Amino acid sequence: MKKIYISLFALSVVFFTGCADDFLDIDQTESISTNDIELFNNDAGASSFVTSIYSKFLDWDMTSFGWIGLSSITSDDADKGSSPGDTGTDKDILDALTYNPTTLSVESVFNANYDGINRCNQALNILPKLTKADANLRNRLMGEAKFLRAFMYFTLVKCYGGVPIVDRLPNPSSTEDRQMLLTRKTASEVYAFIETDLIDAIAALPEKSAYAANEKARASKGAAYALLAKVNLYQKKWQKVVDNCNAVTGYSLAPDYATMFRLAGENDAESIFEIQGVGSIPARGIQGYSNTQGARGAGGWGWGFNTPSQSLVDAYEAGDVRKNATIIFRGTTLYDGRIVPTTVENPRYNYKAYSSNFTDLWETDTNIKYLRFAEVLLMKAEALNELGQTSAAIPLLNQIRNRAGLANTTALSQADVRRAIWKERRVEMAFEHDRFFDVVRTGQAVAAFAADGKTFVAGKHELFPIPQSFIRQAAGLSSQNPNY
Q1: Going by DSSP bridges, is the β-strand pair 271-275/327-329 parallel, antiparallel, or unpaired?
Q2: Would strands 368-372 and 271-275 be described as parallel, antiparallel, or unpaired?
Q3: pLDDT tens digit string along 13-29?
Q4: Residue 11's Cα: distance from chain center in Å?
Q5: What are the CA-CA distances from residue 345 to residues 200, 308, 361, 380, 458 (Å)?
Q6: Cα 244–403–427 angle (5° rounding)?
Q7: In the Cβ-directed half-sphere of 396, how many Cα atoms lie within 13 Å?
Q8: Torsion of the alpha carbons at 369, 374, 380 and 382, rounded to the nearest 10
Q9: Which of 321, 325, 323, 356 shows the shortest CA–CA distance to 338?
Q10: Across the chain, how many H-helices and E-strands are there?
Q11: Maximum CA pair distance of the chain?
């Protein structure tokens, strides 16, 4: 089921050589000369270029420590955790919202996503030339590459606002291409680019049900529709949210919330798109994802970062099964019988990052569920409520609550239902890398962070700073985000 997520071979001949500057000199994962294209002119060769894109999501700089810091530790759902004296390089300043343009995690997430975009552009450049590969396969692979490029640009625009749109492999001697690499586009332009990629992907991709069992993790038509709905959500295009959510078919809520985040629940009926981790050799897991968030100290197995906050604990209603499925509490026994002793350093840890089979290994079998059907229902509910169709939104909200063991919502007015949906998103999707961006897009950030003892500066913290290394290389072609 996860065979596509493997480390790829290294190729020795350079297909494209970038400039010497750090941002411009993004390593080519698949580098071949024009003369050697024939070596890859078959189905397996074509697939390898897209496999390299998926493989990027397993890297430390893409999905692990820095991304955990930006998307989770910064939020009111999490604290730095670990030992007081262990900063995790910069996780203490991320937690305190005192980061700046030289903060390492800010730079690593930026560069890693452009590395991934570069791989997408490589695939999109090479695939049309592989004429001996099956035409339908090549078309699907082009759709996957565009979905993944859109996914990465969505991460970038949420984090940094407007960024450079790199839509092709650049020529290092071209002034126009250098300007493309170093000139920020507006956020609106980036969103439009994402939408175009996703519309193309929708036309090319099959439904998840059409994939063979060993390819269920690949991007599907449903994933592209779900991501497009989420892109619409961030732009408050409410009717488009509804329309694209309606196009996500063939999925259902998993009967048991907790099982979704265990090996048995990977790629289940609720899963629309998730990053695959395989802890057994030679396959790969996400580098350090489980280990950095594992219980720390005597009897523990990890570094102890990204610990659930008291604010998150207090957000759960009595009887909500999601609390104990999301949070590891010190002194409890886990589902596999592992005892979390009282000697570990922090009172709480992220259960969704836990691996039973490879608990203390650097690469585990833990997956990250980035898109699932529960969020589609919540997005549709939010959009319907904003469109004044509150009575149609409430049953969708109740589906999520009932699965969690809770009674129907008592909210009836549009304002109350809006707040109920926002709260439900928090507890339903905790530690799935959405909370920081949710409170920003909904205008809750100042109050939510204050309740967690953090100072969110309006007009500044809505975006992370553009890395100073990029601003330096841009040499006036791009400017910094406000107030940094």
Answers
A1: unpaired
A2: antiparallel
A3: 222 223 334 454 444 44
A4: 28
A5: 49, 13, 19, 40, 34
A6: 75
A7: 25
A8: -90
A9: 356
A10: 19, 6
A11: 67
Gap between the Cα atoms of 87 and 350, Å rounded: 18
- Give 32's pLDDT tier (boundaries 50, 70, 90): low
pTM of model > 0.90: yes
What does the alpha-carbon distance between residue 53 and residue 47 come to, in Å, rounded to a whole number?
10
Among residues 373, 369, 419, the alpha carbon closest in space to that of 400 is found at 373
* Residue 20, SS3 per DSSP: coil
Q: Which two tokens stand for residue 204?
A: 């090319």
Give dist(CA 23, CA 148) in Å, integer: 20
310: which residues sit within 8 A by CB, 6+ positions away?
A: none
Cα separation values, 44 from 50, 135, 209, 264, Å: 10, 13, 22, 29
Tell how strand 327-329 and strand 348-350 pair up. Answer: antiparallel
Tell the burial category of 248 from Cβ atoms under 10 Å away from its Cβ (0-12, 13-18, 19+). buried
The strand ranges marked E within 223-295 are 271-275
- Measure the CA–CA gap between 448 and 441, rounded to whole angstroms: 13
Question: Position 226: which residue type?
Answer: A
Provide the Cα torsion 44, 287, 370, 209; round to 10°.
30
Question: Is the bond leading into 101 cis (omega within 30 degrees of zero)?
Answer: no
**pLDDT score recorded for residue 23:** 52
Residue with structure tokens 């063979």? 212
Query: What gap in Å lies between CA 309 and CA 26, rounded to an integer?
Result: 37
Q: Which two tokens stand for residue 111?
A: 């560069």
The amino acid at 24: L
Element (H, E) at 371: strand 368-372
Q: How confident is the model at residue 216, as a pLDDT?
A: 87
pLDDT digits (tens, 9 = 90+) for 35-54: 578 889 999 999 999 999 99
61-106 confidence digits (pLDDT tens): 999 999 999 999 999 999 999 999 999 999 999 999 999 999 999 9
